[in-house]
Specification:
Elements (H helix, E strand, L loop, with lengths): L2 E12 L6 E3 L8 E10 L5 E6 L4 E5 L6 E3 L9 E3 L8 E9 L3 E11 L3 E8 L2 E9 L4 E5 L3 E8 L5 E8 L7 E7 L5 E6 L11 H39 L8 H8 L1
Parallel strand pairs: 1-9
Antiparallel strand pairs: 2-7, 3-4, 3-8, 4-5, 6-7, 8-9, 10-11, 11-14, 12-15, 13-14, 15-16
């Protein structure tokens, strides 16, 4: 059997709710006798889809993803389609065609990309965190101006990667910083103004003692004045009560005796 040709293609596609991938198997001018698709995905057994012309039948083995189907009737066109494409469809798709003139093979190395979600926030005084969340492949992060930075990567179960860069600026002249995220699906940039936070003024010990002494003196003076006013009010109340006590008035008999 003559080998008509072999083609290997690397194809990248962005995950989107409306993204459809079409994978042609061979030139449409060739009349096929047998077409076999082999699909190898991550963490899944190989899937095989085949069409045989002489018996006009299709067969499938280990093919459970309903989004991967024939694009047309396989007796008319052996093109495969993925609709819609997802992260799980990252893998290898190979088609072997048998014709009366020979065999033809085409292979697609499909790389599914995911745009990361970018967030930027200040965690504490002059320390800023920039995150490129769940991107595929991993994003790259740079800062303007450059600071003292630490970058970490977290690999998620679905094949995406979260990249986090934490930076600190000790220079007091830096007021605004920008985070730039570079990715195959598109670059993004965000900026943030640095808050200065609360500055603690360091004073000599003598000044601190003076401040404490003044505060204590004011407190003591207020306490003395308050105590004096309190006792003055108590004494005033006592005199008022004594003046209005009936027992302190002269008896009526004594008054009559004095008159006689």
């Amino acid at each position: 059997m003559t080998e008509l040709g072999e083609i290997n293609v690397s194809q990248s596609v962005l995950v989107d709710t409306n993204t459809k991938v079409v994978l042609p198997c061979h030139p449409t001018l060739l009349k096929t006798e047998l077409t076999t698709w082999e699909i190898i995905l991550r963490d899944k057994p190989p899937c095989t889809r085949a069409y045989r012309r002489d018996t006009n039948e299709t067969r499938e083995l280990n093919c459970t993803d309903e989004r991967i189907t024939w694009a047309f009737r396989p007796d008319q066109n052996s093109t495969l389609q993925i609709d819609p494409v997802a992260i799980a469809h990252d893998g290898y798709y190979g088609c072997q065609t048998v014709t009366l003139d020979g065999d033809f093979h085409v292979g697609y190395h499909l790389q599914v990309s995911v745009a990361p979600e970018v967030t930027l926030f200040q965690s504490k005084n002059k320390t800023v965190v920039c995150k490129a969340i769940a991107g595929k492949p991993a994003a790259q992060i740079s800062w303007t101006p450059e600071g003292d930075c630490v970058t970490e990567q977290e690999y998620l179960d679905n094949g995406t990667v979260t990249v986090q860069s934490t930076c600190h600026w000790a220079d007091s002249d830096v007021s605004t910083v920008s985070c730039s995220v570079f990715h195959w699906t598109g670059n993004k940039s965000q900026s943030i103004e640095l808050s200065q936070g609360v500055r603690i003024l360091k004073l000599p010990m003598l000044y601190l003692l003076v401040i404490l002494y003044v505060k204590f003196s004011i407190f003591f003076a207020i306490l003395v004045i308050g105590t004096f006013i309190y006792f003055q009010r108590i004494n005033g109340c006592s005199e008022f009560l004594f003046a209005n006590d009936p027992a302190s008035y002269p008896k009526e008999e004594d008054d009559l005796a004095k008159i006689k």
